[in-house]
Amino acid sequence: MRLLPLAPSGLRRRSPHRLPSCSLALLLLSLGCCLEVSRVAAGSRRPNVVLLLTDDQDEVLGGMTPLKKTKALIGEMGMTFSSAYVPSALCCPSRASILTGKYPHNHHVVNNTLEGNCSSRSWQKIQEPNTFPAILRSACGYQTFFAGKYLNEYGAPDAGGLEHVPLGWSYWYALEKNSKYYNYTLSINGKARKHGENYSVDYLTDVLVSY
């Protein structure tokens, strides 16, 4: 896991530290941002918070080998943690933990299916109002932006379809269900927009950058 420094340029980067979980880092970051609100009146600015989440960059399998620009522009400019821990190796439970700061036995997302609470009605009702984005927006006054894959079953008809926009997001550009780079559908603030297989106009990464 790599974090980009939020401090002003010129400060030295610290040596790697062991981090218990991504959720703990996000919790502390959110609390710090909320505390910063009290200093706005004194003329200081609240920090911007950017989280880039990627899948399957396995070190043993060489998942980062072809991503030379990613390593140069993000990895080498940030901080590397030699040890990081996740509450679950499964995609949807892990993402749910990042969003809520909870272990799976507390947010009850146990696998990548609706039956396993992945973007289910229950998740939307109980957990989504208490995610970090929801807290940052309601309690701290932040504008929030999401683009890319949310949870594996997001957009399922039995869970509100693409019209459902989770609480806490000012701008919402979410991929229907799992990762696809072509022939996919996005929820643009609750409205479906389909894309085909034309590289120049439909490649997902370029489309998301345009927003």
From TrEMBL:
Its cofactor is Ca(2+). Residues 47-208 form the Sulfatase N-terminal domain. Gene3D superfamilies: Alkaline Phosphatase, subunit A (3.40.720.10). InterPro entries: Alkaline_phosphatase_core_sf, Sulfatase_CS, Sulfatase_N. SUPFAM superfamilies: Alkaline phosphatase-like. Residues 1-34 form the signal peptide. It comes from the Eukaryota. GO terms for molecular function: glycosaminoglycan binding; N-acetylglucosamine-6-sulfatase activity. Pfam families: Sulfatase. Keywords: Glycoprotein, Hydrolase, Signal. Belongs to the sulfatase family. This is Glucosamine (N-acetyl)-6-sulfatase. It comes from Rousettus aegyptiacus (Egyptian fruit bat).
